[in-house]
């Protein structure tokens, strides 16, 4: 029966970002937070495997105390246990630090048969924690997975790469990162939310893992985030009279030299 | 200041551009290429590599991040470059991350620019699903970056460099059972297309795609779609999906039909030159991301557009 580790991340809701007009930078202060979309797919996939095969789904998050919310949600979706790796003195962990923390967690709280992650996170989308963790643990990696079959001693993944769909078999344990097409994540029910509220969220300070200070030292830091420059003309054409509307449109497109 | 740069790419057509960019960054410090393919050696020297490491035996199968990252790691140990550059393909990204863990090094993926500034490396990359352009500072070397395509014009810069064999003992950890190629046509057509007609949830029935096909035909355009049509409903094939997780396109003309304009979609077409949208909802997010936004029913506007375009020819 598989013991499955799923990583979940709390991200800013990228639909609700605000622009600070004074500095023309994007601010995340006061922006609502939610579970990274891809992580819901990772959880759903893990829960489906457990429903068929038995075993256990362990959700782990690295972040601030507010990340309890996404772990509650993970429990409500069906995770069996939840762990939050957190240290109040460190406001932000970069991808390298997160990868060290997750792989040390794996070693201390394992053995696990499978690690399932989202292929990236909608905030920074640096798509590196999965393969980094795989390398740190010397495990195989199956990234960009859009279909997964578990069979006791191995998994077969269908990976979506630029040139085609690669069907790959890997021994266990291994690290799988999933694309959003892999499934439709379930919504927690009122009953499951209530049940989840009774389960603990276990706090794990980095000091409990075999971590040295350098591993948490940020190596990539964000200087500024500005709105992308693409400015559109935003000419609105009333389409209630289709013939005239299309005439206007074609005139514009001819002037632009694109038709 | 000169810098030593190491380059690897799984995308042969991206190599001239990567080497051109690497040469600009190195300022004469030397650019080394690592490749698994002997056919790419001459191309590498033509675009400015001063040394090429050719892996041997060809055990480092393409699309195996374990062996490929091991090969780049070997080349790193011989050269000790400050910067390692890969293509921002999916394979390039997963390999770069595996390599980053081997070197315990910083990694910035999908960069639009890289520069050595005040002794540090600064990169620009898109974040927040394409809603933000982020400037990030890499605090130590060696640093690894993956580069998007289309950021520099490739320039020939022939070198008479040496080729060195690099023997790799690492074996793949996984086994590829099958590769189903995506139709070359639709995938390549989209990313290189000069004109694209893209369709979204505003389309009511799959049969109505015929209307979109007719428009694409008169415009000589490729057809793409937003996530619901390409991935969820399956009305289009999933290699026609334009968006954050689908294809990123940069045509001269992009016609978005019945697409509301969720940010994940915008992230895939942000680099289009002229954007036209046809949509019933005057307040859909697509409006702010269009040059010309026709507010109307696609079922009346599109046939009229086809009719008038045909009259022009």
UniProtKB/TrEMBL annotation, chain A:
The Electron transfer flavoprotein alpha/beta-subunit N-terminal domain covers which part of the protein? 23-213
Q: Kindly indicate where the leader peptide sits in this chain.
A: none
The lineage's top-level taxon is Archaea
Q: Which Pfam families match?
A: ETF (PF01012)
Q: Which SMART domains match?
A: ETF (SM00893)
Single Gene Ontology MF annotation: electron transfer activity
Bilayer-crossing residues are none
Which family does the UniProt entry place this protein in? Belongs to the ETF beta-subunit/FixA family.
The protein's matches in PANTHER family, at most eight in alphabetical order, are given as: ELECTRON TRANSFER FLAVOPROTEIN BETA-SUBUNIT (PTHR21294), ELECTRON TRANSFER FLAVOPROTEIN, SUBUNIT BETA (ETFB) (PTHR21294:SF20)
The name on file for this protein is Electron transfer flavoprotein alpha/beta-subunit N-terminal domain-containing protein
Automatic annotation (TrEMBL), chain B:
Query: For the Electron transfer flavoprotein alpha/beta-subunit N-terminal domain, which residue ranges apply?
Result: 5-185
Q: Which GO terms describe its molecular function?
A: electron transfer activity; flavin adenine dinucleotide binding
**Which superkingdom does the taxonomy of this entry point to?**
Archaea
What biological-process terms (Gene Ontology) are attached?
fatty acid beta-oxidation using acyl-CoA dehydrogenase
User: Keywords on this record?
Assistant: Electron transport, FAD, Flavoprotein, Transport
Extract the SMART domains matched here.
ETF
Q: Which SUPFAM superfamilies match?
A: Adenine nucleotide alpha hydrolases-like, DHS-like NAD/FAD-binding domain
Task: Tell me yes or no: is Kinase among this UniProt entry's keywords.
Answer: no
- Family in the record: Belongs to the ETF alpha-subunit/FixB family.
Looking up PANTHER family in the UniProt record yields: ELECTRON TRANSFER FLAVOPROTEIN ALPHA, ELECTRON TRANSFER FLAVOPROTEIN, SUBUNIT ALPHA (ETFA)
**Protein name in the entry:** Electron transfer flavoprotein alpha/beta-subunit N-terminal domain-containing protein
Q: What is the native source organism of this protein?
A: Candidatus Marsarchaeota G2 archaeon OSP_D
């Amino acid at each position: 029966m598989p013991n499955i580790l799923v990583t979940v991340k709390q991200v800013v809701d990228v639909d609700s970002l605000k622009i600070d007009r004074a500095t023309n930078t994007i601010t995340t202060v006061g922006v609502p937070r939610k579970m990274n979309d891809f992580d819901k797919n990772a959880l759903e996939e893990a829960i489906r495997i457990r429903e068929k095969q038995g075993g256990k789904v362990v959700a782990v998050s690295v972040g601030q105390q507010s990340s309890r919310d996404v772990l509650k949600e993970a429990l409500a979706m069906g995770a069996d246990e939840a762990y939050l790796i957190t240290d109040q003195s460190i406001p932000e962990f970069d991808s390298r630090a997160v990868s060290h923390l997750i792989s040390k967690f794996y070693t201390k709280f394992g053995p696990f048969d499978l690690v399932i992650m989202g292929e990236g996170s909608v905030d920074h989308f640096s798509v590196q924690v999965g393969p980094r963790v795989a390398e740190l643990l010397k495990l195989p990696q199956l990234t960009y997975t859009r279909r997964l079959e578990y069979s006791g001693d191995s998994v077969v993944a269908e990976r979506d790469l630029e040139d085609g769909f690669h069907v790959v078999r890997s021994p266990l344990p291994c690290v799988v990162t999933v694309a959003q097409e892999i499934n439709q994540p379930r919504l927690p029910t009122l009953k499951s939310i209530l049940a989840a509220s009774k389960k603990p969220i276990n706090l794990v300070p980095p000091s409990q893992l075999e971590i040295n200070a350098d591993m948490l030292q940020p190596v990539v830091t964000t200087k500024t985030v500005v709105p992308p420059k693409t400015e559109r003309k935003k000419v609105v054409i009333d389409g209630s009279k289709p013939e005239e509307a299309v005439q206007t449109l074609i005139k514009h497109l001819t002037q632009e030299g694109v038709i | 200041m000169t810098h030593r740069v190491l380059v690897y790419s799984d995308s042969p057509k991206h190599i001239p551009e990567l080497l051109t960019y690497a040469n600009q960054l190195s300022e004469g410090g030397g650019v080394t290429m690592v490749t698994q393919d002997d056919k790419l050696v001459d191309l590498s020297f033509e675009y400015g590599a001063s040394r090429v490491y050719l892996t041997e035996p060809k055990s480092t199968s393409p699309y195996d991040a374990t062996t490929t990252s091991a090969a780049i790691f070997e080349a790193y140990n011989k050269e000790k470059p400050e910067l390692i550059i890969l293509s921002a393909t999916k394979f390039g990204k997963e390999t770069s991350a595996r390599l980053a863990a081997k070197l315990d090094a910083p990694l910035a993926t999908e960069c639009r620019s890289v520069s050595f500034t005040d002794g540090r490396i600064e990169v620009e990359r898109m974040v927040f699903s394409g809603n933000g352009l982020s400037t990030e500072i890499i605090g130590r070397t060696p640093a690894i970056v993956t580069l998007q395509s289309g950021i520099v014009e490739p320039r020939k810069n022939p070198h008479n460099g040496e080729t060195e064999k690099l023997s790799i003992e690492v074996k793949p950890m996984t086994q590829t059972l099958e590769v189903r190629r995506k139709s070359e046509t639709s995938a390549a057509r989209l990313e290189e297309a000069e004109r694209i007609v893209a369709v979204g949830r505003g389309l009511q029935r799959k049969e109505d795609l015929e209307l979109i096909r007719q428009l694409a035909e008169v415009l000589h355009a490729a057809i793409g779609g937003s996530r619901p049509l390409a991935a969820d409903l399956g009305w289009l094939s999933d290699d026609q999906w334009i968006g954050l997780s689908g294809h990123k396109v940069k045509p001269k003309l992009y016609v978005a039909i019945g697409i509301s304009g969720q940010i994940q979609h915008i992230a895939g077409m942000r680099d289009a030159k002229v954007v036209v949208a046809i949509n019933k909802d005057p307040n859909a997010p697509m409006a702010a991301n269009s040059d010309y936004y026709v507010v109307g029913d696609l079922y009346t506007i599109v046939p009229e557009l086809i009719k008038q375009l045909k009259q022009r020819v």
